[in-house]
Amino acid sequence: MVVDHGVAHEACGPIDLPDEQGRFGRFGGQYVPEGLMAALAELDTAYRVAQADSRFTDELSELLSDRVGRPTLMHRVPRFAESLGVPGIRVYLKREDMTHTGAHKINNALGQALLARRMGKTRIVAETGAGQHGVAVATVCAMLGLTCVVYMGAHDMRRQSSNVVRMQLLGAQVRPVHTGRRRLKDAVSESVRDWVTNVDSTHYLFGTTAGPAPYPRIVRDFQKAIGVEARSQILKSEGRLPDRVLACVGGGSNALGVFHAFLDDPQVRLIGVEAAGRGVDTGWHAATLSAGTPGEMDGSFSYLLQDSDGQIARTHSIAAGLDYPGVGPELSHLKDSGRVDYHAVTDAGALRGMRALSRTEGIIPALESAHALGHLLELADRGALPANSVALVCLSGRGDKDLEIAARQLGITTPR
Ligand SMILES: *Cc1c(COP(=O)(O)O)cnc(C)c1O
């Protein structure tokens, strides 16, 4: 069965970015060593050709339907809406948590893996921080019969051991990285080194809408299905567009995925919710667009968190997927253009969102997604949500991975 997930849609008008240099306004580009330029150019060409080839887009659509579970559900959450205390407000959730593997990351992983296979590559490398992207990549590699190598900081491997087991069970080789601070940033460096060395056989499967061109565009295009589906689903349910669309922001892929279909609808307010950690004033946060400044990181020019010497700042968030000092160039451009508003929600605010949705609706959200819910609760506290308005929240993932943290933080006792 072939369903239209928007994967073959060509953007047009003011939303047709990036430009030929891979820039979104003043952001983006390719700040990479010479040795990477040829590989990026090969990827860019292959992607443009694939995108215009219905054999590619039809196969992707078919796998999104049959194996990922698209289109995902979108439905009202009346008891959660009622808990906001705003008369007549209606809240909808776009259920990316219902995809195979339980988060939106698989949309991009599948798209890039198909592209890699089309390019004649038999081997995939990826980096992972919390392990969520690594699990999505290992899953699609198993599905398509590709060799999978995932680099992971040795420190992160200890913190996220269940995802390490998952990846191995799925047939991936997980390589610990012992350099630097033994975290995500060091794993990125190792993946790039592997890619440059093995570029004939290997594709580097990048996980979010950041990094050098063409990755921000490719990842966004593979995530656009979220918004394309949600827009037509809400038009069907409500007969009109929502007043607000909210999504959490780590690198930006689920947010851009849901926002893109609404960029040309000026009556729809788009709200990106970042991680304020222990508070934006404390220095323990990951609120890049709220508190950062433009600079160069991971191959692109974008907002980032840096100290006064230009060193990348240490970050903190209770949600591993948001714990990143950068953000993609397109979301940076949408900050400058004013089309998207950004707010930051603390760890405590996210836990509140997680508990509220779990108790009112029987849906346990990922801590990342819970930041968007927490922001909605805070808007209601401040009387900033009009009566009878409609809000759509992108529920980027499910909370199973966060149970241990939730138990500890919310004082839930576990049997021993
Ligand atoms: C990784 C992750 C995120 C953050 O990544 P984006 O690229 O900003 O979407 C958000 N939610 C979940 C569930 C994740 O796993």
Using brief descriptors, characterize the structure shown.
416 residues; alpha/beta; Rossmann fold; 2 domains; 7-stranded mixed sheet; 4-stranded parallel sheet; binds pyridoxal-5'-phosphate
Fold and architecture overview:
The protein has 416 residues and is of the alpha/beta class. The protein is built from 16 helices and 15 strands. Mean pLDDT is 94; it is low at 9-14. Residues 103, 105, 132, 208, 248-255, 321-322, 366, 368-369, 396-397 line the site of pyridoxal-5'-phosphate (PLP). The site of pyridoxal-5'-phosphate has 19 residues, from helix 11 and helix 15. Pathway: Amino-acid biosynthesis; L-tryptophan biosynthesis; L-tryptophan from chorismate: step 5/5. Keywords: Amino-acid biosynthesis, Aromatic amino acid biosynthesis, Lyase, Pyridoxal phosphate, Tryptophan biosynthesis.
List the helices and strands and how they pair.
Layout: E1 23-24, E2 27-28, H1 34-51, H2 54-68, E3 74-76, H3 78-83, E4 90-95, H4 105-118, E5 123-128, H5 132-144, E6 147-153, H6 154-159, H7 161-169, E7 173-177, H8 184-197, E8 202-204, H9 215-223, H10 225-238, E9 244-248, H11 253-259, E10 269-279, E11 284-286, H12 288-291, E12 293-297, E13 300-304, H13 329-336, E14 340-346, H14 347-361, H15 367-381, E15 390-395, H16 403-410
Helix pairs in contact: 2-4, 4-5, 4-9, 5-7, 9-11, 10-11, 14-15
This protein binds pyridoxal-5'-phosphate.
Pyridoxal-5'-phosphate binds next to helix 11 and helix 15.
